[in-house]
UniProtKB/TrEMBL annotation:
Family (UniProt): Belongs to the aldehyde dehydrogenase family.
Active site per the UniProt annotation: 262
Protein name: Aldehyde dehydrogenase domain-containing protein
Signal peptide stretch: none
Matching SUPFAM superfamilies: ALDH-like (SSF53720)
Pfam families listed in its UniProt record: Aldedh
Annotated pathway: Amine and polyamine biosynthesis; betaine biosynthesis via choline pathway; betaine from betaine aldehyde: step 1/1
Catalytic activity: 4-guanidinobutanal + NAD(+) + H2O = 4-guanidinobutanoate + NADH + 2 H(+); 4-(trimethylamino)butanal + NAD(+) + H2O = 4-(trimethylamino)butanoate + NADH + 2 H(+)
UniProt organism field: Digitaria exilis
UniProtKB keywords: NAD, Oxidoreductase
Aldehyde dehydrogenase domain: residues covered: 18-487
GO terms for MF: 4-trimethylammoniobutyraldehyde dehydrogenase activity; gamma-guanidinobutyraldehyde dehydrogenase (NAD+) activity
Length: 505
C-alpha cells in the first residue's frame, strides 16, 4: 500500500495568495474508503466570492489586458505548458490525494493526472493557434466594405465542478478558459477539493499572474450559488447534477449570463448478437464499473440482443466476480468506494427500490462482505427491468447496471433513446453499417462504437436534452470561452449618400 501523505492545509486561493475564509469556517475531508477525517478545506461564503470575483476582474483588465487577456496566445501557452509540467512532476502525490479524497482506485487517479497534464498541453497548442485565427476576413458580396472577426476572451468565468473527476473536470474548464485569455473563479465540489487547491499551489510555482485563476472551496448553496448569480461574472460553466444545473441556469438568466451545462446521463450500451462476447463484456464493465459508475457518461443501461443475452449475462457475472474491490490504494484495485456516505445511501436506495419494483438483483447489490468500513458497494447487475422502473429512468451514479433484451435494431434504438437525458450512447457489433446507422439514430452528444467511455481531449464532449448544452474539449471547448466580434470597415472614398446634403449656400 502507498504511504499516506500529509494532507496540505490550504486557504482559499485568491489574487495569487492564500486567504482564510471570511467567516473562518472549514469543512472536513473524509476518506470515503476508511470513513476517517484526514484534513479540512476552507468553506467560502458570499463575502469570499466577492473578493475572488474582484481579483479575477482586476486580473482581466490589468494594464489594459496587456499581460493576460489581450496578450498573444503564445504568452498564455507558456503558462499552460508550465502547469502541465508541474502536474507531471507531482503526478504521484496528486493521484494519491485524489484517491484518498474520492475513493477511486489509485491506478484510475494516476490516469486522471495523465489526462489533466495532456489537457493543459493541448490547450497550450490551441492558445498559440488562436493568434493565427485573429482578423479572419469575412467574404462579402461588395467591395466598399471589409469585415473581419476577432476572437476575444469572454471575461471573468465562474466554474462549478463535481467530485467524480475532481481535478480533471476542473481542468476541462480551466485549461481552455486560460487559453482563451479569460480569468476564472473555480468552485470545486466540497466532497473532493484537495487536488484543485493544489492547482493553486502550482499556479504560484509557475508564476501565473495573480487573480487569473482563483480557487474557492465551499458548499454549493454558500459558495456556488453566489458565484453563479454574481453580476460581474460573465459566464458560468458547470458540470454536475441536472437539478443543480437548473438552479444555475435560473440564477444566470437573471443577468442574461451565458452558461454551459454538462449534466447527468442514463446512457445505453447496445450489444448485438454478432460480437465476441468476452470483449463486449469487458467494455460493458468498463462502461459502468469504472470510477464506480460515478461518471456522467456511464453506460448504465445495457441492452442485449435476445440471442446472446443469457450467455452474455453468464460471462458478465463471471467477469464481475473477478473485479478486485478494495481500498483504492491496494495494488490491482479495480473498484474503490463511492465518494461519500450520502452517495452510498442514495445508491443503496436505488437498489432497494429496484428490488421492490420487481427487478432481479442478478449480482451484487450490497456492501462487499470483506470490507467493513468505507462506502463500498458491490458491482451490481439488475435484470427483469421494465421501462417504467426508477432504475431504468434515473441516474444512479454508482456501480449499478440495469439490463434489458431487444429483438430488432429499431427496438434497441427506441430503448436507448427512451430517456430525458442525451449525453452518450454506445453500440457493439461487427456490422459497421449497423454501427453507423445507430450512431446517427442515437439522441446523444457522444457515441462510442465497439467501446464505452474512452475520451479524447481533441473530440467534443457534451450532451443534448436534460444532459445540458455546450461542448467541452477540442476546439469547441475553447470556443466556450471566446466571444466573436465582427469589425466592419467602410473603405470607399465615396460619401454614403443616404441623406440629402445641406445646401452649400
Ligand atoms: N454529471 C456529472 O458529472 C455529475 C453528476 N452528479 C449527479 O448529481 C448527484 C448529486 O451529487 P452532488 O454532489 O449533490 O451534485 P451537485 O450537482 O449538487 O454538485 C456539483 C457542484 O455544484 C455545486 N452546487 C450545489 N448546489 C449548488 C447551487 N445551488 N448553486 C451553485 N452550485 C451548487 C456543488 O457544490 C458542486 O461543486 C449525483 O448522485 C449524480 O447523479 C454529480 C456529480 C457530477
Ligand atoms: C470520460 N471520463 C470518464 C474520463 C470522464 C467523464 C466525465 C464526466 O463524468 O463528466
Amino acid at each position: 500500500m502507498a504511504a499516506q501523505p500529509t494532507i496540505p492545509r490550504r486557504g482559499l486561493f485568491i489574487g495569487g495568495g492564500w486567504r482564510e475564509p471570511s467567516l473562518g469556517r472549514r469543512l472536513p475531508v473524509i476518506n470515503p474508503a476508511t470513513e476517517a477525517t484526514i484534513g479540512d478545506i476552507p468553506a467560502a461564503t458570499a463575502e469570499d466570492v466577492e473578493i475572488a470575483v474582484a481579483a479575477a476582474r482586476e486580473a482581466f483588465s490589468r494594464d489594459g489586458g496587456r499581460h493576460w487577456s489581450r496578450a498573444p496566445g503564445a504568452v498564455r501557452a507558456k503558462f499552460l505548458r508550465a502547469i502541465a509540467a508541474k502536474i507531471k512532476d507531482r503526478q504521484s502525490d496528486l493521484a494519491l490525494l485524489e484517491a484518498l479524497d474520492s475513493g477511486k482506485p489509485l491506478d484510475e487517479a494516476n490516469g486522471d493526472m495523465d489526462d489533466v497534464a495532456a489537457c493543459f498541453e493541448y490547450y497550450a497548442d490551441l492558445a498559440e493557434a488562436l493568434d493565427g485565427k485573429q482578423r479572419s476576413p469575412i467574404s462579402l458580396p461588395m467591395e466598399n466594405f471589409k469585415s473581419h472577426t476577432l476572437k476575444e476572451p469572454i471575461g471573468v468565468v465562474g466554474m462549478i465542478t463535481p467530485w467524480n473527476y475532481p481535478l480533471l473536470m476542473a481542468t476541462w474548464k480551466v485549461a481552455p478558459s486560460l487559453a482563451a485569455g479569460c480569468t476564472t473563479v473555480l468552485k470545486p465540489s466540497e466532497l473532493a477539493s484537495l487536488t484543485c487547491l493544489e492547482l493553486g499551489a502550482i499556479c504560484t510555482e509557475v508564476g501565473l499572474p495573480p487573480g487569473v485563476l482563483n480557487i474557492i472551496t465551499g458548499l454549493g448553496p454558500e459558495a456556488g450559488a453566489p458565484l453563479s448569480s454574481h453580476p460581474d461574472v460573465d459566464k458560468v460553466a458547470f458540470t454536475g447534477s441536472t437539478e443543480t444545473g437548473k438552479r444555475i441556469m435560473t440564477a444566470a438568466a437573471q443577468m442574461v449570463k451565458p452558461v454551459s451545462l454538462e449534466l447527468g446521463g442514463k446512457s445505453a450500451l447496445i450489444v448485438f448478437d454478432d460480437v465476441d462476447i468476452d470483449k463486449a463484456v469487458e467494455w460493458a464493465m468498463f462502461g459502468i464499473f469504472f470510477n464506480a459508475g460515478q461518471v456522467c457518461s456511464a453506460t448504465s443501461r445495457l441492452l442485449l440482443h435476445e440471442k446472446i443475452a443469457k450467455q452474455f449475462l453468464d460471462r458478465l457475472v463471471a467477469w464481475t466476480k473477478n473485479i478486485k474491490v478494495s481500498d483504492p490504494l491496494e495494488e490491482g484495485c479495480r473498484l474503490g468506494s463511492v465518494v461519500s456516505e450520502g452517495q452510498y445511501e442514495k445508491i443503496k436506495k436505488f437498489i432497494s427500490t429496484a428490488r421492490s419494483e420487481g427487478a432481479t438483483i442478478l449480482y451484487g447489490g450490497a456492501r462487499p462482505q470483506h470490507l467493513r468500513r468505507g462506502f463500498f458497494i458491490e458491482p451490481t447487475i439488475i435484470t427483469d427491468v421494465s421501462t417504467s422502473m426508477q432504475i431504468w429512468r434515473e441516474e444512479v451514479f454508482g456501480p449499478v447496471v440495469c439490463v434489458k433484451e431487444f429483438r430488432t435494431e429499431s427496438e434497441a434504438v427506441e430503448l436507448a433513446n427512451d430517456t430525458h437525458y442525451g449525453l452518450a450512447g454506445a453500440v457493439i457489433s461487427n456490422d459497421q453499417d449497423r454501427c453507423e446507422r445507430i450512431s446517427k439514430a442515437l439522441h446523444s452528444g457522444i457515441v462510442w462504437i465497439n467501446c464505452s467511455q474512452p475520451t479524447l481531449v481533441q473530440a467534443p464532449w457534451g450532451g443534448n436534452k436534460r444532459s445540458g448544452f455546450g461542448r467541452e474539449l477540442g476546439e469547441w471547448g475553447l470556443e466556450n470561452y471566446l466571444t466573436v466580434k465582427q469589425v466592419t470597415k467602410y473603405c470607399s472614398d465615396e460619401p454614403w449618400g443616404w441623406y440629402q446634403p445641406p445646401s452649400k449656400l
